[in-house]
Structure formats: C-alpha cells, structure tokens
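Suppose a classmate hands you a notebook page containing two proteins, each written out with its sequence and a corresponding row of structure tokens. How would you begin to make sense of it? This section walks through that situation. The first entry is reproduced here exactly as it would appear on such a page.
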Amino acid sequence: MASFQKAADERFLDHATSVMAWRYERHFSMAPRAELRKAVEEGHRRASGAGLRQAEQIVEFIDLAFSLGAEFDEDPFLPWASRILGDRGHVDEAVWIGRLITRADLFRETVIGEDGRYFLMAAERLAGQPARADDMDESSLAAFLKALYPQKSAALSPEALSSLREQALGSFTASPPSPPLLNLHMGAMFIFGSGYLRDHLLLALCGKDRFDLNAITATQFQMMLTKALGCWQP
C-alpha cells in the first residue's frame, strides 16, 4: 500500500511541476527543472501542513508560493495569508483556498504589478544602489523599505518590522553581520519574502545550491542579486 501511495505522490509532483513550468515559463525559463521540482515539493509539504488534501487546491497553494514567495504562509509582511489559512471554519476546501487566491490576486495586481513590474523595480533598486552602512532604528528601517518598495509599504507595521529584524539577525551564525550586509538582507526579505534564503527558484536563478550569508560580503550579495535579475524573464 505504501508503494502505491508513493507512486501516486510522485505522479502528482510530476503533474504539479509541469503545471508550474507552464504557468511560469517566461519567469523561470532559465531555472533547471530539478529546481522547479524542489520548489513544488516544498510547496506541497507546506500545503499539506496547512491542512490541504485536494490535489487541485494544493496546486493552487504551490502557485501562490511561486508568485508570493516560498514561505508566503508565514511571511510577516503578508499577514492576510496566515490569517486566512488559520480561519477555515466549516467551509469547503475550495472555498477556503478561493478566499486566499482572491486576496492574493489583489496583492499581485497592486503590489507585484503586471508582469512583476513593481517587484522587479524594487529588486533592481536593492541590487543597484549603494548599500546603506548605518545601523538603522525602526523609523529609518521603515523609511528605507518604503523607498525600496513603496507599493508594499502598507505592510510596514511595527510588529512586522520587529519580526523582520529578529529573523534577519538570526540568519547570521558565525559573527554579527556588517550593517551593509544586514540592511541588504532585510531589504531582500521584504522584497522576495522572509524565506528567500530557502527559495529554490531564487537559488537557481542565482546559480547557487544554498545561500550562506556568513561567507559573503555586501558587494557579493548585490552581485548575486544582479545575476538573478538577469535571468528573470518578465
């Protein structure tokens, strides 16, 4: 019985990978299919953890992970996602996920922009501007992020900013980061999603197996980001 379930899971993952490759052909055409598959597997795992069981709804959850960030369901700057996922009530699974998709569509239209226009502009600002070298307080951090990605500034609550700094500092295990690298990291978390370090699609576009912030400089960080943007097809 276990072997049948494993075979069924593999068929589903193959199908979901093909769906994502088709839906995001223009965006991730330079990402190896193996990395697309890893991203699908991670989305499947998170969808199952959220309580989804229907294949069609799991595919839609994976689609959201592709467009909003691998860990969108826990992103402090997307509080509506965790709120909707945590408030299913007694409705059908399709209705539940439909609510999430409706809210995500509004976000994609007003914050990400057509063909990722606003998102790409924010990423290009982060990659191309001199990295800030000061130790920012909450007010200056909010201003910095708003200037990077004004369409997303409505998400800049004090709680989200506090969570961002705490998560960002937790990414550095070898030694305290330099202010420029920390500020770039926080900017990337805001733009790409708080889980971008584990995002297989972004890793693939950067030509990396993993991100190790303990082993790079701020300049190297911006060079990797520039490389990823060069591979992105809007």
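The notebook's second entry, a different protein, reads as follows.
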Amino acid sequence: MQITPPISVKLQEGFLVASLYGLLDRRAAAEAWIEDHVKGLDPPFDQFRDLYLLQLYTVVDDVDGIEAHLETSRETLRKFTSRPDSMATLDLSKGRALELREDPAAAAAVYRSVLDTLDSSTLNLISSEVRVQALVFYAQASIDAGDLEAAAGSLEQALTTLPAHPGSNVQMARLERARGDLAAARRHLDVALTVWSDADPEYRTAKEARELAAELGG
C-alpha cells in the first residue's frame, strides 16, 4: 500500500530540498526539482513555486533572484496566512538582499524587526531553528556593520538555545576574530567543523568555515 504524505509535509519538503541543493551549489538541479515538485501539488499549493525559488536564491546569494521573487512570495503567503510571524520570515530574504547590496546596517535593521515580530508572537508556531537563524543573520550583518556589541548579544541568545548550532559558532568565530581573540575564534570553529565533519565537500557553509579556519591557522 502506498502512503501519500499530508500536504504540509510535501510543502515543507520543497523548502528543505531547495535549501539543500543551494548549499551544494546545484542551482540548476534545484530549479528543475522545484518545477517537478510543484507539478505534483494540487491547486492552490502549486503557487508555492515562488516561495521555493526565493528560498533557493537566498541560499545561493542571488540578489537579483531574491528581489525578483520577494514580493510575489509575499503575495502568495498572504493567501494562506495572515500571521505576522509567518510573514516576517520572508524578510530574512530581504535582509540577505541588502547584505548582498553591501548595506549591512539596513540588513541588520530588517533582521532586528524580524526578531521583534517573532518575539512578540502570541503563539509559538515558528521553530527555534528559524529564530536562531534570524539571530545568526542579525549577528552577521551587525559584525559587517561594525556593531560588535549587538552581534555578541544576538549570538549569546542563539548559542543558549542551540549551543552546537554550526552557523552560530561560525559567526561567533568571526566576532572573536574581530575582537582579537583568535583562540576563542578557533574554539567556536572547532564546534562548527565537528558538526560538519561528515558534510559533503561542496556544502557551502562548511566550506566557508574551513576557509576561515585556514585563515586563523586552524
């Protein structure tokens, strides 16, 4: 007997696969998979194409792709939810576009607004992983904008929630390098690289962590 997964699982699968392909720098394969995936979704869920593409372009740092799909993704999501916390998660892509346009201060302001919206939510529908990711994005933009104090506060929250989160530890390594504490930076990189010890050689964020470790002599 074939078991058909519920639509919520099939919708979430699109975001997960788009992210994974993007992290492996397999953009063309991701775009082809997304097209096949949405063809298997009954209306109106086939409209999630823009949301999946936005996720992909955010991961691969395609600023034009982000900007081309951000508002259409917002329009699509409004058809399914009016919750401010759900809508706010789209602004993680907006913030990334601002970073790519070399405006980290504006990006940090967007990420801070996302965090404020998530924190004021009356229902806990957004996962801790999403909130930690928002904290990491905020810290990254704050470091690039020179606001090390804001970055430190954000990363302390992220690491309190998920101590072994690799992205948080990579950004903490960047922060400690900016502070001049290279030993602490290496310790945080060790945590991230341990988590990613079996990662695919092309896994983007693990590669970036290895490159940073090499710069630090680790």
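A careful reader of the second entry would note: The two ends are 52 Å apart (CA to CA).
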